[in-house]
Amino acid sequence: MSASRKMGGLDCTVIDHQVGASGPDVGVILCHGYGAPGTDLVPLASVIAASLPADVRVRFLFPKAPILMESFGEYDSRAWWELSINSLLTAIESGQIDVLKTVRPDGLDQARTLLGAACEEFLEESGLTWSNSLLGGFSQGAMLTTDLALRLEERPAHLAVLSGTLLNEPEWSTLAGEGSAMKVLQSHGQLDPVLPFAASLWLRDLFAENRHEVEFLDFAGPHTIPEGAIAGLAQRVEETARQKLSD
Question: What pTM does this model have?
Answer without folding.
Answer: 0.93
